[in-house]
Amino acid sequence: MIAAGIDLGGTKIEAQVFDALWQRVDARRMPTPRDYPGLVAAMAEMVAWAEGFGPGLPVGIAAAGLIHPVTGIALTANLAATGKPFPADIAEASGRGVTYVNDCRAQALSEAQFGAARGYPTALTLNLGTGLAGGIVVNGRLLEGPSATGGEFGHFALPAHLMTDLPLLACGCGRLGCTETLIAGPGLSRILAHRTGRELRAEEIVAGKALDPDLAQAWQVWLGLTAELIHTLVMVVDPGCIVLAGGLSRAPGLVADLSDALTRVALPGYGAPPILLAEGGDTTGARGAAYAAFAQGRAE
Q1: Could you tell me whether strands 141-142 and 132-138 are parallel, antiparallel, or unpaired per DSSP bridges?
Q2: Residue 111 counted as domain residue
Q3: Is the domain of 153 the same as that of 260?
Q4: CA–CA separation, 127 vs 226, rounded Å?
Q5: Which domain holds residue 141?
């Protein structure tokens, strides 16, 4: 076996072990405990299970949220770990080191190495789920900085020229008018509710937009906002491709519609990078974390 990855979510923990060809050979799943001691114990149990495939096997963990680069304290909305030195406590309980990666960054790494972004020297992944984040991979390595916040695209400001009749909403990060509030999955519902007073889930809007003008208009507004976000990222990073992941990425026709919207806002004559769908499926987070652990061990 070459490495193991643990995908830690708000409802489940899944550990996966990969062979030398980066194919999953075994997996184990358990519910995510709601209390911090139980969470640490569960993670240590999963690490021990992975170690059973080979002492010293690189083990990576992919989880939502941030780890402060100086204090090691976690900040996360879906785990009972905020304010705690979570990676250090896992390592202590496990009796060994682990590699801890934000789940969207792990996904970006997995797609660059094994998925839709293979062969692109620079690739950007955008996860359109209940939140909004992603990651940037350059020449096979995650682009990282001193604050470890790179990839938190959901906390850019919404574009002023498109916000004339849309609300500036409070974001969970404490700021007002973050892109996450209207571009993440729930944002599509908020756009429709603000425009029409109708309360529908994002998937209902997508399913009905071909026959309902209100839903079609909300979709077009959402496309405009999302295209502007991607345009901003393109101007900063100049990626070879944009990979979409998360629940909203599976909306029928999204790639074509968003590609058209991005072309309309791109600099004239310069084109826009291709928009692709993530290929990793349920192995993405774990495999990205496993690869991060493998690469870290190789670098050391």
Answers
A1: antiparallel
A2: no
A3: yes
A4: 12
A5: 116-277
Q: Which long-range contacts (CB under 8 A, 24 or more apart) does 174-181 make?
A: 178/154, 179/132, 179/153, 179/154, 179/155, 179/225, 179/229, 180/131, 180/132, 180/154, 180/155
Same domain as 120, residue 98 = no
Tens-place pLDDT, residues 159-213: 999 998 999 999 989 999 999 999 999 999 999 999 999 999 999 999 999 999 9
Please give the model's pTM, rounded to 2 decimal places.
Answer: 0.94
Alpha carbons 112 and 139: distance in angstroms, whole number: 9
- Is residue 232 a part of any domain in this protein? yes
Phi, psi of 297 (to 5 degrees): -65, -40
**Alpha-carbon distance values, 38 to 5, 167, 277 (Å):** 20, 40, 35
Which of these, 294, 258, 288, 292, lies nearest to 275 by C-alpha position?
A: 258
Note the pLDDT tens digit of each residue in 256-283. 999 999 999 999 999 899 999 999 877 7
Q: Are residues 150 and 255 in the same domain?
A: yes
